Amino acid sequence: MKQLLLLFSPILLFISCEKPKENSTTQATEYSLVWSDEFNEGTMPDTSKWSYDIEGNKWQWGNQELQAYTKARPNNIKISEGNLIITAEKEEFLDPVSNKKFDYTSTRLISKGKGDWLYGKFVVRAKLPSGRGTWPAIWMLPTDWEYGDWPKSGEIDIMEHVGYEKDSIYASAHTEAYHHSIGTNKTKSIAITDAESNFHEYIVEWGPEEYSVYVDDQKYFTFKNEHKTYKQWPFDKRFHLLLNIAVGGMWGGMKGIDENIWPQSMYIDYVRVYQKQ
């Protein structure tokens, strides 16, 4: 599953990908590629790298979201022309997990148990959906939850976007000491005027002292280790990646939902994980 690749070798980098990529900020000799998905093969995600998270349909994922996440359903996820495509669709759907009826469907893809890391550089090249009510995210959660349930074990938000703020991208940190539920959340936004029409790299560099979030080569958010307790810094345990589009919810639906925009898709060109050797 894993592969080691020296980044200063352009020949090896070319061999590892079937298509050329641009705007990569990963050309740094201290990192080596340890895990990736280029989405160049098949019509569905590689099950050796990805799983589907659907259990939260029972409780609407804690954010009053309106979608049911589905499993390997072509309406909501597929690979086409070198991209992973996650689609949120307006449709009546009876969820087999919760036995509830939903008006929207989508996919929540996770690498848990198949791609889990402590520290590294994580790069996702994506083009985002558009329209009021969309809430796409590229993020990370703890694999083992060793400090307890959310937010005690932490959450790393690499990219969040809500459709009613079409030109804003957000990065955030969630811990027991810092989260929105108690008004202490650590977050920052950056203006990206073409996130819905063009691909960008969404990146986090995470180490024992801090993690920083970038869009392409522009760093705009840093969360530092205060060297107190896990309540401030739970980011010393392994985490995994999540890719999804939510519909509505406490943030995504704050300005309502445009009923006429669906379906909406997030296109993901590649996911690459690097670690220091």
Give a brief rundown of this model:
The protein is mainly beta and 277 residues long.
Q: What does this protein look like?
A:
The chain is mainly beta and 277 residues long. The protein has 2 helices and 19 strands. It has a single domain (40-269), classed as Sandwich (Jelly Rolls), CATH 2.60.120.200. The strands form 2 sheets. Strands 1, 2, 4, 5, 6, 7, 10, 15, 16, 17 and 19 form an 11-stranded mixed sheet that branches. Strands 3, 8, 9, 11, 12, 13, 14 and 18 form an 8-stranded antiparallel sheet that branches. Strand 6 and strand 7 (101-106) form a beta hairpin. It is globular and about 50 Å long. The relative contact order is 0.23. Residues 1-27 have low confidence and may be disordered.
Structural class: mainly beta
Overall pLDDT metric: 91
> What is the tally of beta strands?
19
**CATH level-1 class:** Mainly Beta
Protein name: Glycoside hydrolase family 16 protein
GO molecular function, one term: hydrolase activity, hydrolyzing O-glycosyl compounds
Domain GH16: 24-277
Keywords: Hydrolase
Keywords:
Jelly Rolls, eleven-stranded mixed beta sheet, 2 helices, 277 residues, globular, 19 strands, single chain, Beta-glucanase-like, 43% strand
What is the element layout, followed by pairings?
Layout: E1 5-6, H1 10-16, E2 31-37, E3 51-52, E4 67-69, E5 77-80, E6 83-94, E7 101-106, E8 108-110, E9 116-117, E10 120-127, E11 134-142, E12 155-160, E13 168-174, E14 186-191, E15 200-206, E16 210-215, E17 218-224, E18 239-247, H2 249-252, E19 264-276
Parallel strand pairs: 4-7
Antiparallel strand pairs: 1-2, 2-19, 3-8, 5-6, 6-7, 6-19, 8-18, 9-18, 10-15, 10-19, 11-12, 11-18, 12-13, 13-14, 15-16, 16-17
